């Protein structure tokens, strides 16, 4: 009897101890959740306060201070379309068109169909070029109206729709004449969407752009300061990067002129990478 009682008592102790352990784990978990939520809330409040401070500086005409505040937010990893857009506006007010264009293009990756953003980007480019049109600008606007994922989905949908129509035509030969035109349209749509996808992929992942950030820069024939200047580019010029060597970039402009620029004269913009970096 005592043995049985002792055994039951021992079981009760184990059960009580386990239940106490459960309560302790529960209390610890609730404490951690409260701590992390409190920290997240404080971080969100801090970010919101910094963003409002940056906007306030902009409204007061302190564009340099606004740039500093926006940059601090980005350095903390708090990238957003609104921050890049406002940063571009601040740079534009400082007549730093290269920085403005780079910021607008970063914002464009996050909100490709924002009409106000697209208008500001076009205006900044026009100012940088002195009002002259940019080659391929309409193509760029068209391709960037959709993200790369959206172009991919449209292409895949067109392909599947074409396959379904072809399979249906094989399964029901009696309605084949009625499905011939829809199949041709689907095939044409697939080809066109595939071309758009290929061009967008090339621009998004295979093309690196150098955006000039100095008032005026000499593009040299070789990667040396002593090399003869081939032509000049203005602040905000967007050039295709062909090669890199010893602190220089080999670039090509819209007229297919090739030359070399020092790395400290440009920002390197890699689409979809969501980053712009000044190489020094």
UniProtKB/TrEMBL annotation:
<feature type="signal peptide">
    <location>
        <begin position="1"/>
        <end position="43"/>
    </location>
</feature>
<feature type="transmembrane region" description="Helical">
    <location>
        <begin position="183"/>
        <end position="201"/>
    </location>
</feature>
<dbReference type="InterPro" id="IPR010466">
    <property type="entry name" value="DUF1058"/>
</dbReference>
<keyword id="KW-0732">Signal</keyword>
<protein>
    <submittedName>
        <fullName>TPR repeat-containing protein</fullName>
    </submittedName>
</protein>
<dbReference type="Pfam" id="PF13414">
    <property type="entry name" value="TPR_11"/>
</dbReference>
<dbReference type="Pfam" id="PF06347">
    <property type="entry name" value="SH3_4"/>
</dbReference>
<dbReference type="InterPro" id="IPR019734">
    <property type="entry name" value="TPR_rpt"/>
</dbReference>
<keyword id="KW-0812">Transmembrane</keyword>
<dbReference type="InterPro" id="IPR011990">
    <property type="entry name" value="TPR-like_helical_dom_sf"/>
</dbReference>
<dbReference type="InterPro" id="IPR003646">
    <property type="entry name" value="SH3-like_bac-type"/>
</dbReference>
<feature type="transmembrane region" description="Helical">
    <location>
        <begin position="151"/>
        <end position="171"/>
    </location>
</feature>
<feature type="repeat" description="TPR">
    <location>
        <begin position="81"/>
        <end position="114"/>
    </location>
</feature>
<keyword id="KW-0802">TPR repeat</keyword>
<keyword id="KW-0472">Membrane</keyword>
<feature type="domain" description="SH3b">
    <location>
        <begin position="207"/>
        <end position="270"/>
    </location>
</feature>
<keyword id="KW-1133">Transmembrane helix</keyword>
